[in-house]
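Progress report, Aim 2. The chain analyzed during this reporting quarter is listed below.
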Amino acid sequence: MSAISLSNLSVSYGETRITHDVTLDVAEGESFALVGESGSGKTTVLRAIAGLAPDWTGAISLLGQPRGHGIDPQSVRDCQMIFQDPYGSLHPRKSIDAVLSEPLRINGIGNRSARVAEMLAAVGLDPRFRFRFPHQLSGGQRQRVAIARALMLSPRVLLLDEPTSALDVSIQAEILNLLRRLQRDQGLTYLLVTHNLAVVAFLCDRLAVMRHGRIVEVAPVEALRRGQLSDPYSRELYAASGGTVTERTAP
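Predicted structure tokens for the chain:
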């Protein structure tokens, strides 16, 4: 069964159409990347799946269930999104404990204290961070909190919108290794948006290249590592990356 299935997905903001007939399938347990230049429609696809871009046509399916317009509770529990900017995605006046407890409270889930402690440990944060505020944490620590928050409801699918691009290079590798471990340990499915082909080579199984709101190529990550992408625009992206992308290449 596909974890994510999109069929002829076209998303608009007002009179402007951002994506055009996007069709793809992401298997359960797969790590799949959407790559392309800024403005190609990558994040818009994630937002439509998450229910944050309600003006769309076509079909979206999550874990075999059709996805309606807007946000519904089951989709929220099954599919969570991690945003690009850890500085802006956490409420500045809420403690980390409050940030992580909120999804449990909203969904009526008990045993909150133990679950918060469990998720802090899962993302490699010491318990002493629990009652601090976001401004007291580094960028990498904030992104770990954002990942923990996304995991609070035990989702099966994570949408990752440039999860390392706002971080220092030295911290990016730590977060990528964390994401890789969490996927393995929890059987997660990832749909990752990035412009960094080294991140794709390190974390993903397949990729789709987007240009002007359309998918121009879907390829296994091995084709990326070997520099054997077929579409001319895909080859341009590869050349712009320096022409050297390997599995061990992590930012």
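The radius of gyration is 18 Å. The chain has a mean pLDDT of 92. These observations will guide the mutagenesis work planned for the next reporting period.
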